[in-house]
Every structure is written in C-alpha cells, then in structure tokens.
Amino acid sequence: MASKSFYAIISGAGSGTGRATALRFAQAYPVVLLARKPESYNSIVAEIKQAGGQAFGLTADATDETAVNAAFESIKKILPGSKLAAAVYNVNGGFAMRPFLELKREELDASLDAAPKGFFTFAQKTLPLLLESVPESPHPPTLIISGATASIKGSALFGSFAAGKFALRALGQSLAREFGPKGVHVSHAIIDGAIDTPESKDWVANNGAEDGKISPDAFIKIAETYWHLHTQHRSAFTQEIDIRPYVERY
Amino acid sequence: MASKSFYAIISGAGSGTGRATALRFAQAYPVVLLARKPESYNSIVAEIKQAGGQAFGLTADATDETAVNAAFESIKKILPGSKLAAAVYNVNGGFAMRPFLELKREELDASLDAAPKGFFTFAQKTLPLLLESVPESPHPPTLIISGATASIKGSALFGSFAAGKFALRALGQSLAREFGPKGVHVSHAIIDGAIDTPESKDWVANNGAEDGKISPDAFIKIAETYWHLHTQHRSAFTQEIDIRPYVERY
Amino acid sequence: MASKSFYAIISGAGSGTGRATALRFAQAYPVVLLARKPESYNSIVAEIKQAGGQAFGLTADATDETAVNAAFESIKKILPGSKLAAAVYNVNGGFAMRPFLELKREELDASLDAAPKGFFTFAQKTLPLLLESVPESPHPPTLIISGATASIKGSALFGSFAAGKFALRALGQSLAREFGPKGVHVSHAIIDGAIDTPESKDWVANNGAEDGKISPDAFIKIAETYWHLHTQHRSAFTQEIDIRPYVERY
Amino acid sequence: MASKSFYAIISGAGSGTGRATALRFAQAYPVVLLARKPESYNSIVAEIKQAGGQAFGLTADATDETAVNAAFESIKKILPGSKLAAAVYNVNGGFAMRPFLELKREELDASLDAAPKGFFTFAQKTLPLLLESVPESPHPPTLIISGATASIKGSALFGSFAAGKFALRALGQSLAREFGPKGVHVSHAIIDGAIDTPESKDWVANNGAEDGKISPDAFIKIAETYWHLHTQHRSAFTQEIDIRPYVERY
C-alpha cells in the first residue's frame, strides 16, 4: 500500500481536537503525537494501538525550539524512510479572560509563544518534509492549523488570547498562498464552539443543549472535516473553514 | 436501506458544479435535476442511469416562481413518499463584466433574479421539506448554495454580478442562523476559480496551469466537498466554505 | 467662492441620517433633497433656509426610475450651471424582521428595490455628473452610501433586509474600485446602531444608555463623518467605514 | 482654553504617518514624541515649535518596557498636571519579505515585539490616563493604532510581518470593545498604500501615478483622518477604518 510509507504528525495531541484527529488519521497512517507531557498522549496511543493502528508519543513543548527539533530527529529513527503526509498544529495555550489593565505581559507572551511562535517552528520543520512528499503522497500533503473564534474576533477581555490566534491565522494565510501553488495544502480551521482547552472543560455552553457543547464525540466529527481537508484534490482546496455546533450563535 | 426513501434536488444542474454534484449525490440518493432546458440535464440523467443511479430531469427556470412550483408538484408524483435529504442551489445568471455606466438596469435585474430571488423561491419550497426530514434523514438535511468570488468582493466592472451574489450570501447566512438550530444545515460555498458559467468556458485561467482552471474533473472534486458538507454531523457544521484550485491567486 | 457653483444631493432625506447630512452639507453647498413625500423634506428645507443655507426638495420614489429621471431634469432648472460635488444615497425600505417561511416574495422585492435597484439608478445619474466635477470641485467629488449592520451580517430573521443591504455594498465596492482611480470618491458607511427607519423609532436600544440610541443629535455627529469623507484628499480615501454608538455591542 | 491642559502622545513618531500626526495634533495640543533615536523626532519638534506649537521628544524603544516606563515618568515632569487626550501607536518594525523557509525566528520575534508587545505596554500606560480624561477632555479620549494591509491579509512572503499586524489588530478590537463603553475611543486605521517604513522609501508604488504613493503631503491628509477620529462624538465612533490612495488597487 502506498500509504504505508507515509505518516501524520499532530502537535498538541492532548486536547479534544488533538485526540480525535489522531484517531481519525490513524485509520490511514501511523501517527506521531507531540505533547508537553506523556500523560497527554499515552492513553491515545493505547487507544490507537487497540484499534489496530500505529501511534508514537513524543514529549516536547511546542514553544521550545530545541525540544521540537529533537522530536523531529526521533521521528527519523522511529519511522525510517517514512514520509510526512499530514501535519496538524493544534496547540493551545495562553488563554486568559481578564480586563486588559489586569493582564500581565507574561500572559500575552504565553499566547504568542503557543500560537505564532510555536507554529513557526512546527511549520519550518514540517513544510520541507511536506514539499518532499508532493510527488508521491496519496493525498496532497497537508498542514492544518486549529483556530478559534478568537482567530477572527477580538472580543472584550480576550485581547491577549486573540492576539496569538490572529497572528497564527496570518501565518496560515501567508503559507497557504506560498505553498499551495507548490502542491502543499495549508488550511486554517476555526473551531467555533466552547474553546478546546482544559480550562473550558466545565463550561456549560449553549445552555446545555444536546450536541451544543463540543463533546468528545463531536470532536470526532470535527476530525472528519480535518480528514476531508486532507483528501481534497488540489483543484479544490479549502484554505479557511469554520466548524461549529448547530446550536451555536454566531 | 434507510436512504432509499430520501432524494436530493439540484437547481442549476447544467453547469460544471451542477453536473458533478448530481453525479456525486446520485451515489447515495435518487437525484432530481432542475434546469431551464432539457439539453442541460438530459446527458447527466443518462450518465447517472448508466452508473446504476436514479435521476429525473425537470424543466423550470429558477426565476419563474410558477414553473418552480409546478416542478415541486411533479416530484411528489415521481418520488411518492420520498423525503428530501439535500437541496443544492447552483443557478448562475446575470453575469456581466462591463463599465458601470454602460450597464443596463436589466442586467442588474437578471443578476438579482438568478441569485436572491430564484434562491428565495427555492428555499421556501425546500426548507419545509428539509425540516420534515430532520428526524430520519441519514445525514442532517442540507441546503447548499453555490457562490463565487463575487460573493465577497465587488470588483471593478463586476458590480451587477456581485450585487446578486452578495445578496444570495446574505440569505444563506440568515438561513444558516435560523435553521441550523432546527437541525437543517445551510451552507454557502464559494467556488473561487474561473466562474462556472457557459460564458467562461473559453477563458484561460491561471495561465493554463495544470489543474489551474476548474476542469470537469475538478468539478467532481468540488462535489466531494459538497458531499462532505452534507455528511457533517450537527455538532460540527460548516456554514461558509471557500474552494479554489491550488494555483489560484487570492 | 468656488464652492458657490457646486451642490449636493441627498436621496432618502427624510430619515435621521438624511436630515443630518442635509444640514451639514448645507453649510457648504446648496442641497437638493429627494424623498418620496414632501412631508419628509419640507421641515428640513425650512430648517436649512432659516440657518442661512439653500435647500430644495424634490419628490421622487428612489425605486421609480422615471420619477428619478424627472427629478434630475428639475435640478438643471433649479440650479443652472451648478455642478455636483456630493451625492448621498440614504434610502431605507424593505425592512422586515420575520421567520423566513413567513416572508413574502414582495418583501424581498421591496428590499432589493430600495437598495441595489434604487441605488443603481441614482449612481447612473450622479456618477457622470461627479466625473465632470473632478477638475474643479473644492473636494474630490463624492458618492456616499448608507449601510447598516445588515450590510455585513445576515442575522436570523433579517434575511430579506440583509439581501438588499449586502447587494448595495457590492455595488459600492465595485464603484469605489472603478471610479476611485478617476478621482471620484465612493464610500460605504455602516451606521451600526438602532436601524435608521421609521419602524425603529420606538426601540429602546442598548438598554436606554445615554447616547446609546442614535438620537437626532447623534445623527448630526454621523453627518460630521460623512462630511469628513467628502473632504478626504484623494491620496487618503476611505471606501468603507463603520460608525456606531460607544455603548454598541458588536 | 480647556484644551490647554491636555496633551497628545505619539509612539513611532519618526515615520511619515508619525510626523504628520504630530504636526496635526500639535495644532490643538502639546505633543510628546516617542522614538528610538533623537534623529527621528528632532526635526519634527523643531517644525512644530516653528509653527507656534509645543512639542517634546523622548527617546525610548517601544519594545523596551523599562524605557517606555521611564518616558512616561518624564512626561509628568515635562507637562505637570496635564492630561492625556490622545495616544497614537505608530511603531513599525519587523518588516521582512522573504520565502517562509528562509525566515529566521528572530524576524518573527521582531515583528511581534514591534506590534502586539510594544503596543501592549503602550496601551497599559496610556489607557488609565485616557480613562481619567473622560470627564473633561475636549473630545473623547482616543487611542489610535496604525495598521497596514498586512493587518487583514497574510500575503505570500509577508507572513512574519502580517503575524505582528494581525495580533495588533486583535488587541485593538478587544480594547475598542472593552473601553468604548467607558468613553475611550479606540480605533485601528489601516494605511493601505506603500508601507510606511524606511525600507519602502524607494519603492515605486502604483506605477508612479501622481498621489499614487503616500507622499509626505499625503501623510498630512492621513493625519486629518486621525484627527477626525479623535473628534468623533461618542455616539458615532469608528473603530476600524481603511485609508488608501485613490489609485490603489485592493
């Protein structure tokens, strides 16, 4: 099978979208999971293996360039000769909801570290690999970025978080325009529901309507759209997409 | 099979996107094709039948309310007891590229007739049927609207065409917000390549790059994304999407 | 004074923005007011005259091409030899807030008549006059269009109104791009407060906060921004602008 | 005169927009100019004084929190008892136009330092002062941010620059929503012409058309719009505005 020699990588694998994307892409490829702590990926790796797939967890803070570099070196040993078909940047961080005058500069820094800076490193590592895969990849090599409502709207009290997410989208647009014509599909997805962070776990979104909060099952559905983006033919790329629960007011 | 008792309808079936959508949805449902002239759907109906699917052509000008009403009456006889799973509004018309002071009011009228007015009638006919299908449809009942770059950008010389397409998108947004919470998925897709009209047939888009113009094959790929929209779970709806060739400058 | 031989015209003079714009532009130019009924402009004409300005009311339904043509013929007699410096399209109509399946096609038609169709006629009459004024006008000849929140967002229940307003903005963008390089400043202003229609008169917007609803005085402030648009130098044109009360949530 | 006891501050005074804004606001207020080097403000301070205004230059790198803090301490001594009426953040930096895989992480950092980070510090210093001025300021206290086309479009090769500018706009939107209802006008202006940086000085924009590049005179016109933003009444605030030469293609 051609696709046997291709793999996918997901940075920020520990969140709902991360886990779901890993499960979905593992149906087609061996999957490498990057997360800050083994606790974030261990159970997902086990879940994938149980389902008959291949998965590998690597520990690296997406904002730590050296750790990310080391992770990519490890991949060469874990999957020798395998090529990169899809890369997903799904890192969250720097979430703060607070009056501006109470925000600390460190909170802005954390948002910028997790979003544009961490992605910058990830993209510089993955794009050369994706370019190499263009001639043989079963689907156009794909780089997917997870965004949020804060990627397009700077709401009151969400300034520092939105700053990171806006910047991330700027990079995504620029890369889509630069690498699309070279055959690499770069796509930015706005997940417009309860924000996918541990902090939001206890929110009651959309008044608790059925399917109104993005549930673990719902993340699986989001992952179907990620997979669809990956399988789009180069004559019909989508560079930006919104995904939200049917009850979401927007 | 549950889906045996559901059907899809495509208005404006004669264009590249229309044909491709018909072929794709015919893999799952009997398909009703609406077009102004039998020549527009006859060969597609034949193609679908040859592939083992079911298809029916009906002649109706989308801008003629009476003709559209009659078509929906016919469907009840052709597919008795069958329910509507998906409706696609893909009508083009009113394309004019001309200095504003040379435009005739009739050209603006033609654009508004083909876009917001024709869609208004189509949506008033199909939404009650789609609402009825919510409890049993194999996928969330779906109303898809085909837009163009002119749906979001009023370029010089494209004013009258953009007026229709902007208005169509306004209706799409409003319906997505009103009917989404009721379980009907309304989605607006911008096909951002050489415009899908007979008039554009001879354009050499994107300097003739391979896959750079939306070829008949490319329309098939676009239809895959339409099908994906239809199969999205209600916890992960996409209301607006752009689809463009990898070489498209935007 | 050079500006003595220039005039301004306001279509839809009867609303809050229309009246305020007339008063402001009358400080510099004779002003022609177009409205459907004399009651809409009589008191404004009186107000301007009392303040020492010149104003003329003409009765014409903006959606009636023949009536609009006749009005422009009248202007030649009223202000012989005077040139057009600024034209403002401020017509409202077709406002309906209603579930889509209860809307009548006539309501959509009314919205399209008042917005893109009425403006089309107005623009075809005024743009040739504005082009003629480029060499001598004290400020770049200007065509200003009044929009609303519904110009950029199709909210639930506002579909038909938004269809008209979106289409109007499409024309505005196209004309800005076509006529800007010729020296005519086309600008679209979104008045994002309680909608400027007689129907909205009794709304309590923004919980009744001081300056939270667009009061008659507030419209005067909006008119200052319209005047500023008119006086922008051609090296610094604004083609789209939002104007909203400080308490407005958006 | 009430306005005697109010002042304005401009960070990034050395550029075309900075100089022009300083000259314009100096017609109403004493003006404090912040720039990295005295060479950037010395001649502007002289120009303002010659015209009969008051101006003070302070040396501070906008990305250096300590230096900015010191500058604000100095202002208390230079203008004792005076209150802040308007603050303009006009800092450029981190401009790079380069294939993504050749970009260095330091170039992204420089863009983020100059845009969201520098502005964060500036806004945390100025917003408390602007809030204090609400009751007495001759016009609503105003915080204006200078953006660029890269604030809303991530073009190919402009990724790192756009990342900073997008993030800056995110903060601007959030602050507009948080501080508008408190009476402080926060506004983000996109100057959509040849980019206002020393590096762009030699570009031939818009094929050299008259007024096609933003000339020193044109910047004066842009400054008129900044001044207009400052003088908008709180019932008619503009939070985002585009300003571009009449010949600009967009």
TrEMBL record, chains A, B, C, D:
What residue range is the signal peptide?
none
Q: Which Pfam families match?
A: adh_short
Alphabetical list of InterPro entries matching this protein:
NAD(P)-bd_dom_sf, SDR_fam
Protein's recorded name: Putative short chain dehydrogenase
- Which organism was this protein described from? Colletotrichum sublineola
